[in-house]
Amino acid sequence: MNSSQKHIVPYHRPAIGKEEMDEVQDTLLSGWLTTGPKTKRFEEAFARFIGKKHAVALNSATAALHLALEAIGLQRGDLVVVPTMTFAATAEVVRYFDATPLLVDCREDDFNIDCCHARDLVVNAIARGQKVRAIIPVHYGGQVADMESIRSLASEFNLAIIEDAAHCCPAYFRDNGNQEWKAVGCDAAISCFSFYANKCITTGEGGMACTDSDKLAERMRTMSLHGISKDAWKRFTSEGSWYYEIVAPGFKYNLTDIAASIGFQQLRKANVFLEERKRIAREYFDRLKTITALILPAEKADRIHSWHLYVVRLRLDMLNIDRAMVIDLLKKMGITTSVHWMPLHMHPYYRDTYNYKPRDLPVSSRLYSEIISLPIFPGMTEMDINAVCDSLKTIISEHS
């Protein structure tokens, strides 16, 4: 295929429409740009959407995870159960407290946390006299984790559940024997969502922490803006007062009204975007299912996958090239892909700080060498999907 025949497919293209543009313009014309009425409206709408009493809008999901751990009182030396197959933020927020992430291997079928392995690690840690304080499950790529087992583990050892739902706005699940569909994040003490540029809905940068606890919500709101005792934005309205007190050394994590304007309109389209992602996932499956050198993702029973990621596995024993070469060849053919992720225990910081070796978490280590994330985003055309699939088929057929 020469360069004139290339059909370029980016890894992601944001789905921003007139509604978002008009809402942002309205905010700019209002004169209120930082945290204010648009942010409050977005919080209220998001809380209703997820089914939680409170939603606290923040400038990132990392901030949401950090404030969640602060709100539950994580202390230096505590342990927090964290999957190794996740992005940096899930574990780094634990280190902010000089606490320790207890890294857990993943399941091969869905890349989510292996609760059996987690339980063994928790039991061993408690036997050593260590305090395990919380668990942060991640829903890999939008495939909902085994929340029944996670809740059971948390209940057995009195662990707070801080849900990393960065990939899941929206995703749905139901427990065994229960016909009621629930939104991801509805069961945790605090659930944390991401609105980064390539997430299922976006504010450009942003996040949300959701909870049913008045106490936890109040603490996160206070700590999100310098530890100020009063609702900071209302200080500049007719309802507010100039007087405030600092009750704790807080952070600067608030979301702006400009970002919330985008988020509010994106939230209204969330289920439409979900249907688009489901359509693309089905088309990928239909076009790639006959390639024996690929293992395709599948939606598990009693789950509605968000399809934030579409991750294929290479059967490397059937190929004469490795994953890096496949990615490079796809790029030369105009297809941008990604990898989610190098497991945390293989990164220099965690490897060297905690003396991890790849064999310590063998499933994640092995899967890492096999995985490629294909482009998937609302607005992908048939031409886009065909270009991705045809390019991948060509590479595999030439190197099998």
Q: For the record, give the distance between the C-alpha atoms at the N and C termini, rounded to a whole number.
A: 19 Å
Strand proportion, as a percent range, falls in 5-15%
Work out the radius of gyration.
22 Å
* CATH architecture assignment of the largest domain: 3-Layer(aba) Sandwich
Sheet with most strands: strand arrangement? 1-9-8-5-4-2-3
Mean pLDDT: 95
Structural class of the helix and strand makeup? alpha/beta
Top keywords for this entry?
globular, seven-stranded mixed β-sheet, 400 residues, Aspartate Aminotransferase, domain 1, 13 strands, 13% strand, 2 domains, 13 helices, alpha/beta, Aspartate Aminotransferase, domain 2, three-stranded antiparallel β-sheet
Overview of this protein structure:
With 400 residues, the protein is of the alpha/beta class. The protein has 13 helices and 13 strands. The protein folds into two domains: 18-268, Aspartate Aminotransferase, domain 2 (3-Layer(aba) Sandwich); 270-398, Aspartate Aminotransferase, domain 1, CATH 3.90.1150. The chain has helices at residues 18-30, 37-50, 61-71, 88-95, 115-127, 147-157, 214-224, 257-268, 270-288, 323-332, 348-354, 362-368, 382-398; strands spanning 54-58, 79-83, 100-104, 132-135, 160-164, 172-173, 182-183, 190-194, 207-211, 294-295, 303-304, 310-314, 371-374. It has a seven-stranded mixed β-sheet with strand order 1-9-8-5-4-2-3, with helices on both faces. Helix 1 runs antiparallel to helix 8 (257-268) and helix 2 runs parallel beside helix 8. The chain is globular and about 70 Å long. The mean pLDDT is 95.
